Amino acid sequence: MTISVISNAQTTNGSGLTVWSPEKANAWYARHKWINGANFTPSTAINQLEMWQADTFDPQTIDKELGYAENIGFNAMRVFLHSLAWKEDPKGFKQRVNKYLTIADKHHIQTIFVFFDDCWNANAKPGKQPEPKPGIHNSGWMQDPGRPLVKPADYLALKAYVDDILITFKHDNRVLLWDLYNEPGNSNKNFKSAVLLTKVFAWAHAVNPDQPVSSGMWDWSLEDLNKIQFKSSDVITYHCYDSPESHQRVIQLLKISNRPVICTEYMARLRNSTFENTMPILKKENVGAINWGLVSGKTNTIYAWDTPMPDGSEPKIWFHDVFRRDGTPFNQKETDLIKQLNGK
């Protein structure tokens, strides 16, 4: 990878794409307290569409649950958008995004917004969303776009969506970071996702928002996708549900970039990735720490990826998530630790 320095503010990545220089990225990172928080979907939403569509947008629950996050010192949430919610109602969608940001800001929380996603179910449809399947992790989560993109018009439509959101919020300091594509190549798409991944980086860098843009590396076997993500990101983001020893090695490798490093997914208790054994490492290394899940709800992420419980009973050990809907923690020791790490 060849990077030539243009100025202290930007570099080219060898493919003609303008990215932030390491100096600019580190200056941005230094302006923030240690970034930590959760991936957030309100407990009343099964997926991104139910979160953002007008009929099911739930600011009361969002306000209540972000209050739980504020109380333990979380200062960032990672939140998935969906292009279909925008397509159905661009103006209303942006108003709801603004309403969400207003609520989050009240709780001193900045937001990482995610555009595209290759995980879980394809063929999302607007309107009423399915009910959760008992005991099945993310039974109703939807990919975005989740269908083959074969015509130039398909990409133009997605570009219009990305441009509209980025241009609307490019100077909004309530937005922390733009996460352009979640786990590209998942759902057996592999390198098929490279075209959209490359394009969304180009679209975002052309808009040149005040906030950095990134896409988190998640599968080290997808080398060609990882190269695109690594060289095109202003700050380095990644996912790691491994044990602390393996996670530490990932951190050491990614710090070679000389850019800020943020873990945008971790904490799966049954895989030996916990708050107790991983969050202190992330703080010590000054790596952002965004765990999966805040409040147990319709996404069913208290259940493990590959261990369904069809009777819907509560697992003895939750896979993800921190709080019950009433605000009581799954594990008081965990929330005590989080508060301690945040000086609360």
UniProtKB/TrEMBL annotation:
Lineage in the entry?
Answer: Bacteria, Pseudomonadati, Bacteroidota, Sphingobacteriia, Sphingobacteriales
Q: Which domain of life is it from?
A: Bacteria
Question: InterPro entries in the record, alphabetically?
Answer: GH (IPR017853)
Q: Which organism is it from?
A: Mucilaginibacter gotjawali
This protein is called: Sugar-binding cellulase-like protein
